[in-house]
């Protein structure tokens, strides 16, 4: 039977995609001490949800994000320790074909992290291999029934698919705790087009917003091609930053009036929309800035201004290729 201790979900979490990813985020093991400081600072300030994935970490560093979280969690002794929620996403790799493979994947994550509180299906295979998804979802349910995790969640699912999966798990009396989607002022599609927030509310599912700053674009730090990051992000910024200029101007104006940073406005907008944003942080400065985005609220007029600016973007952020309808 599942453990009786429930998951505690805070107003905001921390995404750890960058903790081990060299290709996109320039991770180096010399950063580990600083990342542990980030972890400690977040937890002590009530940011107790840490989201990772068993696919995070490039090359030989595969699983590094989970390993770091396990180490940091084990060594933390400060405030809010009992509220820490370690969440991982289990990848629907093409070689994971059975419900047992999902259980095995979770057990590997548990070994790296010490425990997994929230196990999430990283993406749906319904569009290209529905049989596989059925097996993996069965395995996800097994994790909960066997008490290996406190809760289960989904990632990159749309409204239609979510309702079907909810019905599937309901037949086993297994609740879906969370759904995470790519959601920001530059990526409103899951909410405005698919109506995912209303569905989550109806089904009692908490909505998690990943990439709430759209890979850093909404921080306002990338003003022209000279400031763009190298590699894949830079190519994406080349199109998105000029396209988003009117939105960035709106965010900047509100940030100046509120005496906040642009990043804090972008994150707070997600909170105001009823989502739990999980911005990433690679250093103390970023963590402090993220933490200061909570415990206050944009007013209705400011939210409406931001919504209008976001709706005016002709070509917003591309959606995750695995996002279902």
TrEMBL record:
<feature type="domain" description="NADP-dependent oxidoreductase">
    <location>
        <begin position="12"/>
        <end position="309"/>
    </location>
</feature>
<dbReference type="InterPro" id="IPR050791">
    <property type="entry name" value="Aldo-Keto_reductase"/>
</dbReference>
<protein>
    <submittedName>
        <fullName>Aldo/keto reductase</fullName>
    </submittedName>
</protein>
<dbReference type="InterPro" id="IPR036812">
    <property type="entry name" value="NAD(P)_OxRdtase_dom_sf"/>
</dbReference>
<dbReference type="Pfam" id="PF00248">
    <property type="entry name" value="Aldo_ket_red"/>
</dbReference>
<keyword id="KW-0560">Oxidoreductase</keyword>
<dbReference type="GO" id="GO:0005737">
    <property type="term" value="C:cytoplasm"/>
</dbReference>
<dbReference type="GO" id="GO:0016491">
    <property type="term" value="F:oxidoreductase activity"/>
</dbReference>
<dbReference type="InterPro" id="IPR018170">
    <property type="entry name" value="Aldo/ket_reductase_CS"/>
</dbReference>
<dbReference type="InterPro" id="IPR023210">
    <property type="entry name" value="NADP_OxRdtase_dom"/>
</dbReference>
């Amino acid at each position: 039977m599942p453990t009786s201790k429930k998951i505690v979900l805070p107003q905001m979490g921390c995404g750890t995609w960058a903790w081990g990813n060299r290709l996109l985020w320039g991770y180096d093991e010399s950063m580990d001490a600083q990342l542990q400081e980030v972890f400690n600072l977040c937890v002590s300030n009530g940011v107790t949800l840490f989201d990772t994935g068993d696919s995070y970490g490039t090359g030989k560093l595969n699983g590094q994000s989970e390993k770091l979280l396990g180490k940091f969690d084990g060594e933390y002794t400060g405030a809010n320790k009992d509220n820490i929620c370690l969440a991982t996403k289990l990848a629907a790799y093409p070689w994971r074909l059975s419900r047992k493979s999902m259980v095995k994947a979770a057990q590997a994550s548990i070994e790296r992290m010490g425990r997994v509180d929230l196990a999430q299906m990283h993406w749906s295979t319904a569009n290209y291999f529905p049989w596989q998804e059925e097996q993996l979802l069965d395995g996800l349910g097994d994790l909960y029934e066997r008490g290996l995790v406190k809760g289960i969640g989904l990632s990159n699912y749309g409204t239609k698919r979510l309702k079907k999966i909810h019905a599937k798990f309901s037949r086993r009396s297994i609740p879906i705790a969370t759904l995470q989607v790519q959601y920001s002022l530059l990526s409103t599609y899951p909410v405005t087009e698919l109506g995912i927030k209303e569905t989550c509310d109806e089904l009692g599912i908490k909505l998690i917003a990943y990439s709430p700053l759209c890979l850093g674009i909404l921080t306002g730090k990338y003003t022209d091609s000279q400031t763009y990051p190298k590699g894949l992000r830079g190519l994406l910024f080349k199109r998105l930053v000029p396209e988003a200029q009117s939105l960035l101007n709106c965010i900047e104006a509100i940030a100046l009036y509120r005496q906040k940073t642009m990043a804090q406005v972008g994150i707070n907008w997600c909170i105001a929309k009823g989502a739990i944003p999980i911005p990433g942080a690679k250093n103390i400065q970023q963590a402090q800035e993220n933490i200061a985005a909570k415990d206050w609220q944009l007013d209705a007029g400011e939210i409406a201004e931001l919504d209008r600016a976001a709706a005016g973007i002709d070509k917003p952020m591309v959606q995750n290729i695995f996002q279902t309808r």
